[in-house]
Design a protein that fits this description.
It is built from five helices and ten strands. The protein is α+β, with helices and mostly antiparallel strands. The strands form two sheets. Strands 1-10-9-4-5-6-2-3 form an eight-stranded mixed beta sheet, sandwiched between helices. The chain has a two-stranded antiparallel ribbon with strand order 7-8. The longest helix has 27 residues. The chain is globular, with a radius of gyration of 17 Å.
Length: about 220
């Protein structure tokens, strides 16, 4: 097996383990639980969304991105990095499709899409700005100090690993999950791969309707 194939196998195994860890984390650490009758979704919807705590990052325009930026509208969060060869572009393309569908069908529902880069050394403000614009002009790119990124990712159980030996073209392992945050703001649902734009929009409408029915 050549080095490229070995690296691909290693990445797939790593991501599978990360997804398993995410599932275990959700089961053991989130004080919310899957509803007895949740809406149909490709992932998990929580009966009692978990309230988020303060954090501090910067968006691709250099503005502060903190807890108030998640308030009063629904948010899709995705943790990744701009040099990602496959998972990130595929998922962001699916989110772009979901945004177009939701804008047409549910324009009254305030929604924002956020790409959180866990690779701040390479994903500078300018790099993020051009990267997110490729997928959608309204997509928000966010990053920050490693400790701040870890603090936010832990609230969602979103795992990733930046190698210490950062050779040229290094890869960052990360979970391929889409996180849905309610306007409270609270962690309301997680969508697992494979990601499809139309299905993401459908699942999201179910999450919104279900949360509104409870309130």
């Amino acid at each position: 097996m050549n080095k490229r194939k070995s690296a691909t196998v290693f990445l797939k195994v790593t991501l599978s383990l990360a997804a398993l860890c995410l599932g275990l984390w959700l089961g053991l650490n989130i004080d919310s639980k899957p509803s007895a009758s949740p809406p149909t979704a490709n992932g998990a919807v929580f009966e009692s969304p978990r309230q988020l705590t303060a954090f501090s990052l910067l968006d691709h325009r250099g503005a502060s991105f903190d807890l108030p930026r998640l308030t009063d509208h629904w948010t899709f969060l995705y943790f990744g990095y701009a040099h990602c060869p496959d998972l990130c572009p595929t998922t962001l393309a699916a989110l772009s499709v979901a945004k177009r569908v939701l804008t047409q069908e549910s324009p009254q529902t305030p929604v924002q899409f956020v790409f959180v880069s866990v690779d701040p050394d390479r994903d500078t403000q300018e790099r993020l700005k051009s990267y997110v614009a490729f997928f959608d002009p309204s997509l928000i790119g966010v990053t920050g100090k490693p400790d701040s990124l870890k603090a936010l990712s832990r609230q969602f159980g979103a795992s990733y690993h930046v190698p210490k030996d950062r050779a040229e073209g290094y890869a960052v392992d990360h979970t391929d999950v889409i996180l849905i945050v309610s306007p409270k703001p609270a962690f309301a649902a997680v969508l697992t791969p494979p990601h499809d734009g139309a299905r993401i929009a459908k699942d999201f409408r179910g999450v919104v309707a279900w949360n509104e029915a409870k309130n």
